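Worked example 3 (structure in, sequence out).
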């Protein structure tokens, strides 16, 4: 036990030194903000791979946060904790339900200079994703979902693998969409009914990437949320809900625009 304790102390010391060094390097040599990417429901961080490749090529430091998908309050708290490990300005990006998470995680964080919603929810205070869906009907997502009972009345939801390509990523290469269907992470169903707090988009400049072929969140809902937030809007004709997967170049370009215009 003594040897283990000493070993842990040594590791902590090395990590602390590395963190301090990294923070110093970040503050002194990096001129570009860190881009933090938050995936949505029925996805994982690998959905950002094409975007990450382009951002890193252009010199942006990137963190893809593993959104827990357990509930809005706890998911936002996790992303907030991730943000607090980063020195310097941040561009915070959310896809789908991840938009709800960044709306809450960025609140009160002066380091977040821009919010980018990639086919993402941008709820107002007290609003839920399901309320937005009800207000702007037309989504076919509910028809493709299957429950995973967790006990005690709790239920996770996932998209049926055979429905995933057409529902989520109709304009992506079929093999990529099929792989994303297998890699998807379920979300606790209650998360869609958890009200948002005061939205960070009221005080942080926001950008919206709106795919007109989105079958999961209707384009009308996207347009409404973007207008309400007075956000900069880019529309992608014919793109699916998984626009980050099918159009990573356009997605990365909007993120970089947000970084440049808010630096």
């Amino acid at each position: 036990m003594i040897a283990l304790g000493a070993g842990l102390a040594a590791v902590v010391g090395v990590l602390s030194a590395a963190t301090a060094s990294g923070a110093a390097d970040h503050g002194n040599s990096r001129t570009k903000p860190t881009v933090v990417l938050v995936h949505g429901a029925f996805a994982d961080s690998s959905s950002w791979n094409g975007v990450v490749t382009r951002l890193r090529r252009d010199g942006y430091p990137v963190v893809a946060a593993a959104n827990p998908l357990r509930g809005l309050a706890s998911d936002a708290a996790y992303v907030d904790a991730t943000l607090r490990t980063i020195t310097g300005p941040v561009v915070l990006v959310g896809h789908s339900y991840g938009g709800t998470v960044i709306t809450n995680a960025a609140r009160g964080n002066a380091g977040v200079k821009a919010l980018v919603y990639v086919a993402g929810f941008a709820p107002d205070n007290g609003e839920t994703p399901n309320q937005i869906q009800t207000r702007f009907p037309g989504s076919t997502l509910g028809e493709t979902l299957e429950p995973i009972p967790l006990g005690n009345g709790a239920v996770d939801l996932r998209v049926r693998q055979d429905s995933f390509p057409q529902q989520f990523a109709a304009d992506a290469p079929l093999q990529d969409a099929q792989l994303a269907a297998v890699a998807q992470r379920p979300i606790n169903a209650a998360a869609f009914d958890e009200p948002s707090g005061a939205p960070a988009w009221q005080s942080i400049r926001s950008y919206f990437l709106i795919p007109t072929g989105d079958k999961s969140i209707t384009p009308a809902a996207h347009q409404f949320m973007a207008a309400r937030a007075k956000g900069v809007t880019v529309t992608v004709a014919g793109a699916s809900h998984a626009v980050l997967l099918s159009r990573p170049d356009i997605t990365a370009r909007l993120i970089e625009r947000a970084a440049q215009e808010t630096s």
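Notes: Residues 31-261 form a domain with the Rossmann fold fold (CATH 3.40.50.1820). Residues 1-29 have pLDDT under 50 and may be disordered.
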